[in-house]
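cron nightly-structures :: item 1 of 1
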Amino acid sequence: MLTQPDGLLKYLTDASSLRLPQGHFIDGEFRRSRSGRSMQSEDPGRGEAFADFARGDADDIADAVSSSRKGFAVWRRTPPADRGRVLNRTAELIRQNAERLAIAECLDSGKPIGEARGDVSGAARTFEYYAGACDKLEGQVFPLPSGYVGFSQHEPVGVTAHIIPWNFPISTAARGMAPALAAGCSVIAKPAEQTPFTALLLAELLAQAGLPAGVCNVVTGTGVEAGAPLVAHTGIDHVTFTGSVATGAHVMRACAENVTRSVMELGGKSPVVVLDDCDFDAAIANVTGAIFEHAGQICSAGSRLVIEAGIHDRFVETLAKKAAAISLGHGLRSPDMGPVNSAAQRDKILGFLDRARERGAEFLAGGLAATAAESGKGYFIEPTIVASRPQDDELVQEEIFGPVLTVQKADDADHALHLANCTRFGLVAGVFTRDFSRAHQLARDIDAGQVYINEYFAGGIEVPFGGNKQSGFGREKGLEGLKSYCKTKSIAARIG
């Protein structure tokens, strides 16, 4: 386990003791890119590079696919109980290496160290959960006429590609890789170029846990040079993608060329519906966390507050004060909120805010770029709340992916439902009310893949996750996520 004799802050100037890998993980070992090229990963809390990693391309992808096809031939024949033991050992190794993984995640993504530790813990739980599912994949017996027998069995889909986003690198890697491995598939992961390291470290831990060489490969690099050739490769049987609608559409077109299966999680513009009879303090705390955790860079962030008129004024006034009190700083310093992931992401968010000002939007809190007080560096955006905007406003309709909450004022619960469903997205939603019947009516009628009642982000790995409308299709997490990596074979026989 990693020791910290000098505390966390030593990694601000020297990340070498983390022993971060510099190569791809292919066929059970780290190796350089065939081209010999590398890239730098930037610490968004300082706006400075802190480590190098391999810059892969189609040649490296070809090596990974070849390795994965051989690995699949071995892994699919491995007894399910033995697969479960490997995943359980992986969960334990993640816990043993938790601090190293969390620090790497913090430096790579910018999120506060406490959030990174939570993500690592969740990754361990994910492997643990699917370890228990390996030997529970049971088929069905069909009620055929006398003289026939019919049954089904689940088979692994084959070589699976995983395009991992930069906002939750280890969490998203785990929620795709663990069920794929549990089902008997092999895995090729392509982490975002902004956050390459925890996927590589995870592959290393899987190998230490006994996963055969070739069953898990990781190729790092850009989306254009490594991601595109991966999803377009004829040796890929399934693609799991998490990212923007625009990029997801490109991935789907590539999958269509080879009729490759896919699961798409494409982001959201999720409403948090707060009714007059809510638990006021609990709703304030949850709305704050829903948008300002990881600086709002969460696909399921509660980025729209749909607030009933009776408590609107008091609620938004209280919320604005709470937002103004949020501390900003480098993730290793345990601030309330860390930076956004890159200069490009910061500038994209500021573009939304500048255009809103031009349209006359009222800012109740924040709205400007910032830097870390201790260093004057980093890519920060102030926690921002924008007063009630019309339904067709850009801040209501578009995913900003930053710490920006847009208010929508509702006349009553029926109007709140209409506003909740007013965008092209349908990932998640939150509902806050003491009226349990009304809560379930809203949960029934809101068009979203998941609805939280009286606690935003409620649930865990056991609960299926995925979107409707332009938030994508397919489900991850839970046993539904396991089914994504299985194909059903039906067998029928005449027996006399």
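cron nightly-structures :: done
The chain is about 40% helix and 20% strand.
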